[in-house]
Amino acid sequence: MKYGIAIFPSKRVQDFANSYRKRYDSHYALIPPHITLKSAFEADEQQIDQIVQELQRIAAETAVIPLTITKFSSFYPSNTVIYLKVEPNETLTALHQKLYSGIFTDQPEFAFVPHITIGRDLSDGEYFDVYGQLKMQTVHFSETADRFHLLYQLEDGAWTVYETFRLGKENA
């Protein structure tokens, strides 16, 4: 089965992101707005039990994570993905690194750029039009994430929560 690990921002941020995603993100119906911590990976039932135990340990030793969302940005020219930029911080980066070490032997496909995708699979013309408008907008959200989620992919391609992990020793 295919799994992934993500943080879901607050409803306020999700509503803001979805106001754009419903028009510009081909994955709008498959997963809520999120920050990917570990991209899709395969695991069987035996492996997932071990992974859940490891994620509980990681969550217990990770402090809550400040999230500051500051602007619209893009991965162009690599691709036409438009996203809300989440400012990197030590806690978020350390958590990402833990999810690619220890029992997690795979390596990330891309450098870690914390973000919330709001547009993908856009033609070049559509990308330039949409991004040209969005990058002029002022965006600022500041909040704290106190949990992350192990997700799994359903047969129709949608993602759903397998288990939620609260951050900090008091939540272990």
Automatic annotation (TrEMBL):
Keywords annotated in UniProt: Hydrolase
Motif segment (HXTX 2): 115-118
MF GO annotations: hydrolase activity, acting on ester bonds
InterPro entries noted in UniProt: 2H_phosphoesterase_YjcG-like, Cyclic_Pdiesterase, YjcG
Entry-linked Gene3D superfamilies: Cyclic phosphodiesterase (3.90.1140.10)
Chain span(s) of sequence motif HXTX 1: 34-37
Enzyme Commission designation: 3.1.-.-
Domain of life: Bacteria
The keyword Nuclease belongs to this UniProt entry's keyword annotation: no
Active site: 34, 115
A Pfam match: 2_5_RNA_ligase2
HAMAP family linked to this entry: 2H_phosphoesterase_YjcG
Family: Belongs to the 2H phosphoesterase superfamily. YjcG family.
The protein's name in its UniProt record: Putative phosphoesterase GFC30_1199
